[in-house]
Amino acid sequence: MKKGPVIAIIAVLALLASFFGYRSWQDKMNRDLAEQRATAVETSKAEAEQRAAAEAEAARLAQEKARLDAEENARKAAELQAQQAALDAEKQKADEAAREAAEEKDRLEKAKAAADQQAAELTAERQKAEAEADAARQAAQQKLAELDRQKQEMADREAARLAALQHQQELESQVHMRELLGHAVYPNDFKYREHYYLGIEMINNEIQSENDANKKAPPLK
């Protein structure tokens, strides 16, 4: 058998084997590449879905945070508004209390001034009344002293008159009948009134007794 054809057949077989081996490798590579591409697409799709889900979750969280922040801000704003309203109410109450206190202070000051003025007027009136009372008391004392002096002078004059009259009557009794004494009329407050009347009565009794005796005695020569 000749080597030439055999070598040629072997070479052809080797070429065919190489060709089909390359085709097999190429198909495998294409399948692997297709699988890799499909895997990459699936991976990219999953990543896209994950990113979309993450973005959606982030958006939801951001929206929820914004809602919570808005609610918190609204709550804080309401609290601040309530606190401001309470502060305004307290300030209004404090202003009203201060106004009422100022009015009460003004009223008390006016009342005190009126009371002081009234007290001063009452003090002046009391001092005036006391001065008038003292003056009236002194005037009354002076008047009483003057009345006592006048009464004493009258009593002294009357005593002197009575003494002179009694002496004259004693002289006249030796010659003729004596007349009974009259008496002056004194007011009830004259302190010597009773003594005076009693003295006149005693003297008149004595005169009457002497007259009675003279009627019985012989006339003097």
Give me a quick take on this structure.
With 221 residues, the chain is mostly helical. The chain contains two helices and no strands.
Largest sheet: none
Give the strand tally: 0
Oligomer: single chain
Poorly predicted sequence stretches spanning 5 or more consecutive residues: none
Along the chain, the helix and strand elements come as HH
The proportion of strand residues reads under 5%
What structural class should be given to the helix and strand makeup?
mainly alpha
Helical stretch count?
A: 2
Report the mean per-residue pLDDT as an integer: 77
Q: Give the N-terminus to C-terminus distance in angstroms.
A: 257 Å
Helix content: over 70%
Shape: rod-shaped
Radius of gyration: 78 Å
